[in-house]
């Protein structure tokens, strides 16, 4: 009903503006239409004010509504409104919360006494905020770049006996995509249950003929929020950025790599692709699996969490603790930003960050500055060349304030750095799908794994140090000498940081 109301208002707005500027009506009628136009604009501005956003965001959208007739209003409906109060995915959020409470029942409070102070600081916060729980009986292995990830993935898929559940933001119909789809079709014909979920926007290049072939072979295929919902439907802004594969409830994959030949470095326009993925075995796989099953239920209305065949935990001998956390419109607003903030604030010695998109909110920037002031070593690694003009220069716009307080910033030179990794104090880390930007914090569906004392953390440290050898440290003096044109591009791009 709200969508119809907004659509009618947009029609009245367009009609009123046309009547004032172009129609041959008497003057008094033009005044009436002008009053109607401004009444709609001021009604929208009043509704915007009642949302109690930050003053700068409220004023920004008010200026857009006032000074960009009709276009500003449509842009506001499409990308400025975004139901930040949480109405859009209310039913999914409510259902997911009830399901998490049911499947994560605990008889006793977890024991964090053996942890270091910084680990205990973060783990305690995560326990009280996340609906998921920390797992001890889990093994993890870091997969560096596409070669390692896809070699391991194809091997494990071929070994599947019962079911394969697979979910990606980007899945292409190129050579790599067809290889994986061929395996899925082969396993489905063998009697293995295969469920395949892809994002309706991120995977637009996935050909319908390939989807039909998978369905014909017995693969259950569905799109998450496909484009048929229309331009005015704000669900187009919310994308499922998760990358999840679960095989027989024993093996799980997650991380930064989608499915496409560019992730193997075979796209000449992009070049070498640096990324990090992870394979999990044991108890934490069921948490990762539950996130997939809840997304599947939302799209297909098939409740599989009630079936113990999909939820029975498989415990293995672990070497640390793993906490898998989902974030997005189906969880508490901005929860991944809060997790990153808490990791940074709990650090005592070092914070190493690698991210392709560094567009931090004020809380993250403040936490990094405080960490520097406490004597914590802060390193941030970003790609020298990004895959988007706005993201590249918006990222650079944050360099001056961080360099001034002592942050070490490294520009990765070898190719495009796409991994999303945070390492704290050498024994705690985050790896997953969430970038350090507003879109990952507030709009996208994401999933991250937080690692405590796992050998995988040491692998991440070693790989980070290897990446530093392929990077150039941004020097404060040299950076401040950049030209006016560079500063202009940075300042312009930063204006769009709220939607990047």
Automatic annotation (TrEMBL):
Top-level taxon in the UniProt lineage: Bacteria
SUPFAM superfamilies in the cross-refs: Phospholipase D/nuclease
One Gene Ontology cellular component: plasma membrane
Localization per Swiss-Prot or TrEMBL: Cell membrane
PROSITE patterns cross-referenced by the UniProt entry: PLD
Membrane topology label: Multi-pass membrane protein
Keyword Protein biosynthesis among UniProt keywords: no
GO MF: cardiolipin synthase activity
TM spans (from-to): 7-25, 31-50, 59-78
Protein name (Swiss-Prot/TrEMBL): Cardiolipin synthase
Catalysis: reaction(s): 2 a 1,2-diacyl-sn-glycero-3-phospho-(1'-sn-glycerol) = a cardiolipin + glycerol
Family: Belongs to the phospholipase D family. Cardiolipin synthase subfamily.
Pfam families in the cross-refs: PLDc_2, PLDc_N
Keyword field: Cell membrane, Lipid biosynthesis, Lipid metabolism, Membrane, Phospholipid biosynthesis, Phospholipid metabolism, Repeat, Transferase, Transmembrane, Transmembrane helix
């Amino acid at each position: 009903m709200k969508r119809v109301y907004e659509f009618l208002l947009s029609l009245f707005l367009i009609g009123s503006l046309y009547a004032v500027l172009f129609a041959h009506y008497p003057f008094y009628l033009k005044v009436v239409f002008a009053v109607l136009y401004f009444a709609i604009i001021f009604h929208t501005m009043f509704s915007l004010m009642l949302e109690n956003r930050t003053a700068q965001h409220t004023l920004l959208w008010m200026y857009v509504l006032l000074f960009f007739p009709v276009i500003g209003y449509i842009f506001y409906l499409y990308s400025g409104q975004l139901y930040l109060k949480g109405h859009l995915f209310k039913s999914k959020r409510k259902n997911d919360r009830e399901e998490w409470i049911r499947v994560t029942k605990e008889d006793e409070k977890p024991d964090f006494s053996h942890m270091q102070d910084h680990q205990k600081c973060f783990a305690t916060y995560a326990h009280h905020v996340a609906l998921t729980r920390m797992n001890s009986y889990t093994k993890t292995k870091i997969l560096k770049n596409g070669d390692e990830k896809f070699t391991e993935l194809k091997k494990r898929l071929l070994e599947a006996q019962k079911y394969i559940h697979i979910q990606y933001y980007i899945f292409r119909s190129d050579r790599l995509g067809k290889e994986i789809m061929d395996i899925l079709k082969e396993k489905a014909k063998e009697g293995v249950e295969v469920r395949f979920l892809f994002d309706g926007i991120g995977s637009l290049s996935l050909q319908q003929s390939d989807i039909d072939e998978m369905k014909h072979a017995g693969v259950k295929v569905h799109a998450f929020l496909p484009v048929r919902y229309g331009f005015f439907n704000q669900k187009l802004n919310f994308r499922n950025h998760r990358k999840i594969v679960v095989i027989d409830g024993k093996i799980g994959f997650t991380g930064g790599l989608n499915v496409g030949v560019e992730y193997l470095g075979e796209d000449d326009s992009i070049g070498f692709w640096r990324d990090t993925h992870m394979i999990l075995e044991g108890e934490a796989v069921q948490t990762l699996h539950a996130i997939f099953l809840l997304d599947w239920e939302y799209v297909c209305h098939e409740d599989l969490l009630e079936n113990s065949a999909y939820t029975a935990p498989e415990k293995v001998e672990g070497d640390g603790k793993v906490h898998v956390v989902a974030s997005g419109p189906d969880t508490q607003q901005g929860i991944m930003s809060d997790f990153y903030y808490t990791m940074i604030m709990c650090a005592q010695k070092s914070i190493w960050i690698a991210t392709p998109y560094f567009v931090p909110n004020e809380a993250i920037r403040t936490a990094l500055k405080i960490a520097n002031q406490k004597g914590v070593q802060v390193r941030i690694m970003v790609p020298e060349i990004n895959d988007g003009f706005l993201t590249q220069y918006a990222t650079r716009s944050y360099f001056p304030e961080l360099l001034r307080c002592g942050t070490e910033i490294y520009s990765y030179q070898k190719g495009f750095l796409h991994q999303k990794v945070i390492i704290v104090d050498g024994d705690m880390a985050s790896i997953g799908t969430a970038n350090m930007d507003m879109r990952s914090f507030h709009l996208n569906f994401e999933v991250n794994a937080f690692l405590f004392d796992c050998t995988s953390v040491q692998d991440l440290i070693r790989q980070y140090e290897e990446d530093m050898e392929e990077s150039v440290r941004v020097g404060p003096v040299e950076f401040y000498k950049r030209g006016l044109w560079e500063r202009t591009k940075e300042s312009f791009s930063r204006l769009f940081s709220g939607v990047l």
